[in-house]
Design brief:
Elements lengths: L2 H23 L9 E2 L7 E7 L1 H4 L10 H13 L3 E5 L10 H6 L9 E5 L2 H5 L4 H17 L3 E5 L14 H22 L3 E3 L1 H4 L1 H6 L1 H4 L9 H18 L10 E2 L9
Helix pairs in contact: 3-11, 6-7
């Protein structure tokens, strides 16, 4: 086939996949922002930024979203209450992180921000260099404000059964390339990176019926619990509550004081 025919074929597959995915869950994630484990006091300010995964789309209940799961787990480990603020929006690309940052309440400074983004950049064919440039800028801005940053790198889109072949293989390769580039710019910008393809990808591949929601694209409640558990070590390390992190967790390339 000619190059033009191949590109048209992939565009048709991408449109079909987006139509299937977008029609199942809608565009609204559960609202989970509140103070977790209030009895502990001395709250940690936790900020969630990014796309539909960061927002928790696909979770059955508010307490099952990524933010809620992280907040409750962090509170138990830190013995401090956790105030969750979710700036993440469904459908966001990395270029939209700056708008999320701009919409934060005046004077709000989180102790730690967790960012999950990149999937929409891949499906919308955003150049890796452009995507990572936006990510580096936002990580740098957060660090300048005194916020510790943990980025969950782009998940492996090759694991998505909702996406037909050969587009799935192409998306898988592109997502892995973006994840590697994200890891580099995040750690060089003073943040911590968690390679989601490494730390949770195997669970999604081995147990797709449990880990994916109805659209077979976004995590289910079980998938979010697993993802939160996987990200937590880097969040604890960012706050100075954990010295060692497991495989798939990447510390800053330069020494950064804890929050």
């Amino acid at each position: 086939m000619s190059g033009l025919v191949v590109r048209q074929f992939f565009r048709m597959q991408a449109r079909a996949a987006r139509g299937t995915i977008g029609s199942t869950l809608g565009e609204a994630a559960h609202e989970a922002d509140r103070l977790y484990k209030k009895k502990y006091g001395h709250p940690v300010e936790l900020l969630l930024m990014g796309d539909s995964i960061a927002a928790g789309l696909g979770a059955e209940r508010p307490k099952d979203t990524l933010g809620a799961q992280l907040a409750s787990r962090l509170a138990k480990r830190a013995k401090r209450s956790v105030s969750l603020y979710t700036a993440a929006r469904v459908g966001s690309e990395t270029s939209m992180l700056r708008d999320q940052l701009a919409c934060l309440p005046v004077g709000f400074v989180a102790h730690v921000a967790v960012i999950v983004v990149g999937g929409n950049d891949v499906t919308h064919r955003v150049k890796t260099a452009e995507s990572t440039r936006h990510l580096a800028e936002v990580v740098g801005e957060l660090r300048a404000r005194g916020t510790q940053v943990v980025v969950g790198t782009c998940p492996d889109l090759g694991a998505l059964s909702a996406v037909p072949q050969p587009l799935r293989s192409v998306g898988g390769r592109a997502s892995r390339q973006l994840a590697a580039a994200q890891r580099q710019v995040v750690t060089e910008s003073g943040g911590r990176a968690v390679s989601l393809a490494d730390v949770v990808g195997p669970f999604f591949l081995a147990q797709p019926d449990q880990m994916f929601s109805l659209d077979r694209f976004h995590p289910s409640s079980a998938g979010y619990r697993r993802t939160a558990k996987a990200i937590l070590p880097s969040v604890l390390a960012a706050l100075g509550l954990e010295d060692n992190v497991p495989f798939g967790h990447h510390p800053p390339a330069v020494s950064i004081p804890s929050a």
